[in-house]
Amino acid sequence: MKVICTERSQVLGARLAKVLQVPIVDVTFSRFPDGEYYLRAGDLDDEIVVVGSVVDNDALVQLMLLIDACEHSHIRLVLPYMAYARQDKQFKQGEPLSARVVAMALSRGVSEIFTVNIHDPDVLKYFTVPKQNLSLARGIGSYIEALHLKDPLILAPDDGALAFAGQVASAGGWDFDHLEKTRLSDIEVRMAPKKVCAASHPVVIVDDIISTGGTIATAAGMLYQQGATDVYAACVHGVLANGAYARLMSTGIRDVICSDTIERACSRISAAERIAGAIRKR
Ligand code: R5P
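# ribose-5-phosphate complex -> structure
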């Protein structure tokens, strides 16, 4: 077995190869003068693990080319982050079901797919090969444990992320809850934990994705007003669009933590062990 990865997943790819104790394939990446991607894989193996997060359109094309370059191998695809997964329905007439388009395109030529905290597990049905969605909730829980916070409260920004918050909280037996938004006027909303009081507690807001950071920035401001001692933000996929990291830090958030499904300077949790564990069981 060997691991091969796209440019945008080279850190996670290398970590995964190390945990699996298998070689990583060297790949030459370049572009044609018109901007098209070119790549050439080094020595492959009968069994290949392809690692590639779809973080944008270029990453999607590069991943499809890499899969094709491995066509004579048995391919397992690790798709740590899947852009377009949030367009998982045709919300309005005339829209594409983008998650289905990407899932079907990436199923071609591979025998199995591993995703990590995919935005909505319902999307998995669009992959046309066997698939498994892995969760990093335990890894995030262990990271929080190592911060040695006193009685932290683990909060989901909405009820959709409550189960995830519960899995994170189980690492330390901490209280968990979700925020509830109350509209006070046309321009004013209040966000507070539904059942548990945040006053005098450090709070860790956990979510699958931090995109613009708007959800968490608003929540953090409200939690500080309610007397939370410190607010942290932790997520699996640090999309961090449009200056989100700086925006979050400017609200007084103590730290923003994400995993290496999207490779960022604040990627302090690795998905490698979790993915390796799943691959070893096959
Ligand atoms: C939404 O359902 C997701 O779980 C995240 O809460 C959302 O993508 C975060 O978006 P933003 O960071 O732009 O508020």
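# post-check
The pocket of ribose-5-phosphate is lined by residues 157, 160-161, 207-215 (CB under 6 Å).
The mean pLDDT is 95.
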